[in-house]
């Protein structure tokens, strides 16, 4: 079931998020049995640490959840969310001295903590969330927009589901089905350009990358539109449902997580859910080139020079740099209807992981104001991002001798930046363009973020839209 807060209830038990610095003051304001109990325990209010409080009748009267020391608070996002799976079943409410921002983070973290991926577990139901009789449920804090937080969490759950589903059940056709289902829910129009139509509709790079796949996994371009008022926002998500590397075949270890190579598509669909569910006043377009980069007799080859929708020729120096190819045609299409902002999201380069690791989403922006608004929003909503530069001197690295562009410059330097520069060549009419080079995978479980597929940058961008688009 989708993530939801519990209905307000007089019997909801208090949950006190507390830092070590505030533990003594909090304890001093509690009834005698609870105060004595805290003093007798080794509870230090470390991140996610939980302590149940006894009542005079011997039952549970409340609980504490640690936030960790103030000086190290930035090390753990959603620390209070750890309580969601450690508390007895029933209704709970946040209590104590919390700022509005702290209450919102704790509440959203609780919803995100409820996610479970159990699709392939015998006898289990897909999803998690609140509402079941045998789980702890949180009442939305006063002053928090509960509906907005639920929409954000549900969008994130959608992203996680799509990434976590293995490639045998999440090919281009299934990704199309997910987009159609989302569109139908919110009254969006979804059209699809199928494999037989890609060349006729001047989308040659999408066709070329996906043509070696089996017929039931044929390439396509998914196009969703929603909203008829407000600034135009186009989201473009890389939908490579599995990436073998093509003829430049990946080694086995590098192929293990390639089901997540459609993480950009999953993330823009999750973000689209947030936008549509909250009625954000934009004219939204979502473009997803959905392909599988497979190996077959008609696979594209190293050394090929390919045409693109933009009219730029592309020399192929590595068939494993296919994501920027399918994005190029989709971005060129988006650029033909210049709007306020085009955003691309993609699990694009290993270089981005080397530079910033798996937890921090690098992004590129063509204007400073949008970049500043995004960085500020990311910090505020615990969705960290970091701007990398469109470094102009590196333009020469993507310009080969025999074609306009090189899809994989030799030398191995500045791989994320050169990929971003490559994509920028296809967005020339839209005044503002942002690109995210995300990882889309959480390597180890953390509060609000279980191991597996995860959205990166979507919540930050959603929070930044009012400033970026002047809504």
TrEMBL record:
<dbReference type="GO" id="GO:0030145">
    <property type="term" value="F:manganese ion binding"/>
</dbReference>
<dbReference type="Pfam" id="PF21337">
    <property type="entry name" value="Peptidase_M17_N_1"/>
</dbReference>
<dbReference type="GO" id="GO:0006508">
    <property type="term" value="P:proteolysis"/>
</dbReference>
<protein>
    <submittedName>
        <fullName>Cytosol aminopeptidase family protein</fullName>
    </submittedName>
</protein>
<comment type="similarity">
    <text>Belongs to the peptidase M17 family.</text>
</comment>
<keyword id="KW-0031">Aminopeptidase</keyword>
<feature type="domain" description="Cytosol aminopeptidase">
    <location>
        <begin position="318"/>
        <end position="325"/>
    </location>
</feature>
<dbReference type="GO" id="GO:0005737">
    <property type="term" value="C:cytoplasm"/>
</dbReference>
<dbReference type="InterPro" id="IPR000819">
    <property type="entry name" value="Peptidase_M17_C"/>
</dbReference>
<dbReference type="GO" id="GO:0070006">
    <property type="term" value="F:metalloaminopeptidase activity"/>
</dbReference>
<keyword id="KW-0645">Protease</keyword>
<dbReference type="Pfam" id="PF00883">
    <property type="entry name" value="Peptidase_M17"/>
</dbReference>
<keyword id="KW-0378">Hydrolase</keyword>
<dbReference type="InterPro" id="IPR048816">
    <property type="entry name" value="Peptidase_M17_N_1"/>
</dbReference>
<keyword id="KW-0464">Manganese</keyword>
<dbReference type="InterPro" id="IPR011356">
    <property type="entry name" value="Leucine_aapep/pepB"/>
</dbReference>
<dbReference type="InterPro" id="IPR043472">
    <property type="entry name" value="Macro_dom-like"/>
</dbReference>
């Amino acid at each position: 079931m989708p993530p939801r807060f519990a209905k307000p209830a007089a019997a909801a038990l208090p949950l006190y998020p507390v830092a070590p610095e505030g533990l003594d003051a909090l304890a001093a304001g509690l009834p005698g049995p609870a105060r004595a109990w805290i003093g007798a325990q080794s509870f230090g209010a470390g991140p996610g640490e939980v302590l149940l409080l006894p009542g005079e009748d011997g039952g549970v009267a409340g609980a504490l959840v640690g936030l960790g020391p103030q000086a190290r608070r930035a090390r753990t996002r959603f620390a209070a969310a750890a309580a969601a799976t450690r508390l007895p079943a029933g209704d709970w409410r946040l209590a104590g001295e919390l700022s509005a921002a702290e209450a919102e983070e704790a509440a959203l973290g609780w919803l995100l903590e409820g996610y479970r991926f159990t699709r392939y577990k015998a006898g289990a139901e897909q999803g998690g969330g609140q509402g079941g009789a045998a789980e702890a449920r949180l009442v939305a804090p006063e002053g928090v927009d509960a509906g907005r937080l639920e929409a954000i969490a549900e969008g994130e759950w959608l992203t996680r589901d799509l990434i976590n589903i293995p490639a045998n059940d999440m090919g281009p056709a299934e990704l199309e089905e997910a987009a159609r289902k989302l569109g139908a829910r919110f009254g969006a129009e979804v059209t699809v350009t199928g494999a037989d139509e890609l060349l006729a509709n001047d989308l040659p790079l999408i066709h070329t990358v996906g043509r070696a796949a089996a017929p039931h996994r044929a390439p396509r371009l998914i196009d969703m539109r929603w909203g008829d008022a407000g600034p135009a926002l186009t989201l473009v998500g890389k939908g490579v449902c599995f990436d073998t590397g093509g003829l430049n075949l990946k080694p086995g270890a590098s192929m293990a997580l390639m089901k997540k190579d459609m993480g950009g598509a999953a993330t823009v669909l999750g973000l689209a859910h947030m936008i549509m569910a909250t009625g954000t006043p934009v004219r939204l377009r979502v473009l997803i080139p959905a392909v599988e980069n497979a190996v077959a007799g008609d696979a594209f080859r190293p050394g090929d020079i390919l045409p693109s929708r933009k009219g730029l020729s592309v020399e192929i120096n590595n068939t494993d740099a296919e994501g920027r190819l399918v994005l190029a045609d989709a971005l060129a299409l988006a650029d033909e209807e210049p709007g306020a902002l085009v955003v691309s999201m993609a699990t694009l380069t290993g270089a981005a992981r080397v530079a910033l690791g798996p937890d921090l989403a690098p992004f590129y922006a063509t204007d400073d104001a949008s970049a500043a608004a995004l960085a500020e929003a990311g910090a505020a909503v615990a969705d960290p991002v970091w701007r990398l530069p469109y470094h102009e001197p590196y333009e020469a690295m993507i310009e080969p001798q025999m074609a306009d562009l090189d899809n994989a410059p030799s030398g191995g330097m500045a791989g994320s930046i050169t990929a971003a520069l490559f994509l920028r060549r296809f967005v020339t009419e839209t005044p503002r363009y942002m690109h995210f080079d995300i990882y889309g995978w959480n390597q180890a479980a953390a509060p609000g973020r279980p191991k597996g597929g995860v959205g990166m940058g979507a919540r930050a961008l959603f929070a930044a839209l009012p400033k970026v688009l002047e809504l």
